[in-house]
Amino acid sequence: MTIEDMSKRLGVSKSKIMRYMRKGLVRRHYNKIKPYLTAANKKSQLQWCVDMIDPDSTPNDPHFKDLFDHVFIDEKWFFLTQKSSKYYLLPEEDDPHRTSKSKNYIPQLMFLSVTTRPRFRDGVCIFDGKL
User: Fold this and answer.
1) Of 13, 32, 42, 107, which residue has the fewest beta carbons closer than 10 angstroms?
2) pTM above 0.85, yes or no
């Protein structure tokens, strides 16, 4: 995965591999993991899409239902700190002291957001749609 690993495996110097990269003989590639969808997953996703079509509009001009009665939930995980951090300090400042029980198990914080359509009763907003 690194130039160092590649040079060790091939038995050539890192500079030679860099020359190969400039010539186009070796290239860098980034690969992200993609979710594996089974046939049942694909079928359920397609069924959800079909269920979202407004039945009153199907013969002539099909369109999707309004999402007024849906609740949208999103979560985001944050690490409280990183294994290594770079600081820029003034000469008279002390070095920061950071501790954790283990550098491999850094605590995380979850931020959960929920939103939906505001609800009105008799022209008065009884729920603004945010939690």
Assistant:
1) 32
2) no
**CA angle (112 as vertex; 109, 116 as ends), nearest 5:** 170
- Determine contact, residues 80/124, Cβ cutoff 8 Å: no
3-state secondary structure 41-80: HHHHHHHHHHHCECHHHCCCCCCECCCCCCCEEEEEEEEC
Please give the angle made by the CA atoms of 60, 61 and 64, to the nearest 5 degrees: 135
Q: How far apart are CA 52 and CA 92, in angstroms?
A: 63
Cβ contact 119:126 at 8 Å: yes
Q: In whole angstroms, give the CA distance from residue 32 to residue 69.
A: 35
Amino acid at 67: L
pLDDT value, residue 90: 66
For 89, phi then psi, to 5°, come to -120, 155
Per residue in 42-98, pLDDT (tens digit) is: 999 999 999 989 888 877 888 888 877 788 889 999 888 777 777 776 677 788 887
Determine the Cα–Cα distance for residues 85 and 24; give it in Å rounded to an integer: 35
